[in-house]
Specification:
CATH topology: Porin
Radius of gyration: 24 Å
Strand content: over 45%
Strand order of the largest sheet: 2-3-4-5-6-7-8-11-12-15-16-17-18-19
Number of domains: 1
Shape: elongated
CATH architecture: Beta Barrel
Number of helices: 2
CATH superfamily: Outer membrane protein transport protein (OMPP1/FadL/TodX)
């Protein structure tokens, strides 16, 4: 057991340098980037449901109260690949990225509680956009190049405990940290110097979440599961540097500043509002489960314009509705491997909370996946597929079709077993 703890700790330390995930979406240009779905690959494969679901051998990122039902030590690692096709009505393009997604460990504590900890992305930034201007003859006169990279990660610790009357309660605390760099390079034909505006931001802060779950038997086989979570209001501190300078207009990728027009440090805050999620589901334990989930929150707030200096964009209330579930023919089948495979599917619709020129950016996604058992154990290789559409070709928006593939490994074992003396 000690060797396992040491080995897993070394893995956790080694992946910190790889956890800063790249993005392939132009919508990550706004604010502190595109928000990552704080769900496991199993939950995302079911349309991002998970607030009401609990399992004795699966970690839940959705609701810390689910950890009270954990009966096996579970450690999970996931890799994610994202592909995006972009269309603005006149031109199309594509982008892709592959990265390590999350790492987490969950452990039961006795029969009534459990905890988990891990590392996962929080927001991601990754875009490269070009805006061209031409005269009446069709000659190129000006180019604006927008580039961004970075994002934020979170280290979390969660705990769940069983209460009387079929209730369970959980809490989670997380430390958010990361850096973002945004640049805008303006080049004009026939002008000796180009201009670059560059901001480098370092963000950090703490977040907290609380959750409840309720399980009750409807019949001998059917179980009703309900859950709710509150992601409390939190504030991220943003410290960084803003620069505006000239450089040679020679097309070189090497950035050598000449004269600074702006060169200053700044401190600002990003206030994230209270987020609430509710979910109800019904199913047969270890056989099937179907649920509906709804989440909502008010608009994010920025104290200055360093990360929100575009007058064409605004932030508004956000919401998501998800429907999904899973089916396992026979989890303990001895004669058929295929009967032990878990099949998952679902869909979700989001109002992202971002508006461009008063037009809301919406997101519709569908997902499916399989959990492939490893040997005779409860460990699984989880494959998840997600595809959908974000935005539309209308009123300065672009349409983004995306396809995401996730490969997750979940290993389960019994730790802290008291040896029997014969």
């Amino acid at each position: 057991m000690i060797k396992k703890i040491i080995g897993l700790s070394l893995i956790l330390l080694s992946i910190q340098s790889f956890a800063q995930k790249n993005n392939a979406s132009p919508y990550s240009f706004f604010g502190i980037g595109e928000e990552t779905s704080l769900k496991t690959v199993e939950e995302i494969s079911m349309g991002q449901i998970g607030v009401a679901f609990n399992s004795p051998y699966q970690i839940s990122f959705s609701n810390p109260a689910a950890l009270a039902h954990l009966r096996f030590t579970s450690y999970t690692l996931t890799v994610e690949s994202k592909a995006t096709r972009i269309d603005d009505g006149n031109n199309t393009g594509s982008a892709s990225s592959t990265s390590l997604s999350y790492f987490a460990i969950g452990m039961p504590i006795g029969l009534n509680s459990g905890f988990s900890f891990g590392l996962q992305p929080n927001t991601t930034v990754g875009y490269s956009l070009t805006e061209e201007f031409k005269n009446t003859n069709g000659d190129l006169t000006q180019i604006n190049s927008f580039n961004g990279k970075g994002g934020t990660n979170r280290v979390f610790l969660a705990f769940g405990y069983k209460l009387p009357m079929n209730l369970s309660f959980g809490i989670e605390g997380a430390y958010v940290f990361g850096s973002i760099e945004n640049t805008l390079l303006n080049r004009r034909d026939g002008v000796q110097l180009a201009t670059m505006h560059r901001t480098g931001s370092n963000l950090k802060g703490f977040t907290a979440k609380a959750g409840m779950q309720y399980n009750t038997k409807l019949t001998d086989k059917l179980t009703l599961k309900a859950g709710a979570i509150l992601n409390f209001k939190n504030t991220l501190t943003n410290k960084g540097k803003e620069e505006l300078f000239t450089l040679s207009n020679n097309g070189s990728e090497t950035i050598v500043p000449k004269d600074y027009l702006i060169d200053k440090f700044f401190t600002s805050t990003i206030k994230k509002p209270l987020n609430t999620a509710l979910s109800f589901g019904v199913g047969e334990e270890n056989k099937w489960h179907a649920a509906v989930e709804y989440s909502f929150n008010e608009a994010i707030e920025f104290t200055d314009g360093v990360l929100n200096n575009n007058t064409k964009i605004s932030y508004e209330n956000a919401s998501r509705i998800s429907i999904g579930g899973f089916y396992t023919p026979k989890i303990n089948s001895i004669s058929s491997y295929w009967d032990r495979i878990t099949y998952r599917a679902g869909f979700n619709y989001k109002k992202t909370g971002l508006a461009v020129e008063n037009t809301t950016v919406n997101d519709f996604g569908m997902s499916f996946g399989v959990g492939l058992p490893i040997g005779r154990q409860l460990s699984n290789l989880n494959l998840g597929f997600e595809f959908g559409k974000r935005g539309e070709i209308n009123n300065s928006l672009i349409k983004e079709n995306y396809f995401n593939f996730r490969l997750g490994l979940t290993l389960n074992d019994k730790w802290f077993i008291k040896p029997k003396i014969k």
